[in-house]
Amino acid sequence: MATAGKVIKCKAAVAWEAGKPLSMEEVEVAPPQAMEVRVKILFTSLCHTDVYFWEAKGQTPVFPRIFGHEAGGIVESVGEGVTEVAPGDHVLPVFTGECKECPHCKSAESNMCDLLRINTDRGVMIGDGKSRFSIDGKPIYHFVGTSTFSEYTVMHVGCVAKINPEAPLDKVCVLSCGISTGLGASINVAKPPKGSTVAIFGLGAVGLAAAEGARIAGASRIIGIDLNANRFEEARKFGCTEFVNPKDHTKPVQEVLIEMTNGGVDRSVECTGNINAMIQAFECVHDGWGVAVLVGVPHKDAEFKTHPMKFLNERTLKGTFFGNFKPRTDLPNVVEMYMKKELEVEKFITHSVPFSEINKAFDLMAKGEGIRCIIRM
After folding, report:
1. pTM of the full structure
2. What superkingdom heads the lineage (predicted)?
3. 30 and 140 in contact (C-beta within 8 Å)?
């Protein structure tokens, strides 16, 4: 392309300080360096992780910064050494990468790349320790290696998944984070047998995706657990067959579930990050074969406490990161699930706004309205 090797000026939504509305600015985006890719972002969406770090609660604040990590776009240019993608390719940026060379990437059991694992404190590229964004010569920092709230962004090639160019980017962009995380937690990690009973703790976007995964796997009972009963009717669209609101019961919710299921559920997937929900998710699974999967990220000081006999009675506790999907290897296949109508993506998308109104997406999430808001660049 004519812009290859040149600095590009474009619009970006910049967070100048914690918790303040994003500001639409003209930024300069430098060309990609070795093993980097510059991508024209066409559609992005807002994830709770963006909001959490924008609020800068409980972690190192890095500002000014360009957030965003759930998106779809087209490769504009590539840096030296990049061979797996080329200008014009349709791609999904991913907040965690796959270098394909480290022990984790070579392992069939892991997706936690040593080189490109998520790093929320790093605001620069790993190649030279510099930002590719600037305003008047001053750096604007990156976020989790993606920074998709910009019309153009630069990423390490290992954080870019090449997908079917026929896939609509305004739909499949949501597969680059939360939806795949929940889906994979069910189908890759919990692996519920056909006809099994699955409990889903938390019915936000990730929990609904976990329910969808349990539905695809053939679970016959999918029990949604949430403190917000307003989410229950929507969750039926994702396979949930019944619901429990812990506020409606005087006994611990794990005991309620054990009574409902004659001894416990076959699988549970926890998607809240609340340590009590994590313990409940583990203690509600059936002895002998029950498997609990933890997806949510707990408070840094949280402690998981349960009786060791819960393990000795043959219950299994697992954790998962990005649903155990290897980004570059597996995401193209998730997109194909959508193309083959095996996975419904549209029902996750409840709102859409133009890039100029990106702060509306933050307002919608703050009010708890909808599941995913698409931001049209």
Report:
1. 0.94
2. Eukaryota
3. no
Instruction: Kindly give the residue spans of alpha helices, DSSP state H, lying in the chain.
Output: 48-55, 103-106, 169-172, 178-184, 205-217, 232-235, 253-260, 275-283, 309-312, 327-339, 358-366
Residue 226 to residue 229: CA distance in whole angstroms? 7
Alpha-carbon distance of 283 to 354, in angstroms, equals 44
Q: Single out the catalytic residue among 38, 44, 47, 272.
A: 47
Catalytic residue among 113, 271, 284, 373: 113
DSSP letter at 250 equals S
CA 267 from chain centre, in angstroms, equals 21
CB 287 within 8 A of CB 314: yes
Note the pLDDT tens digit of each residue in 44-59.
999 989 998 999 876 7
CB 12 within 8 A of CB 66: yes
Task: Establish whether 240 is a catalytic residue.
Answer: no
Residue 38 is among the residues annotated as catalytic for this protein: no
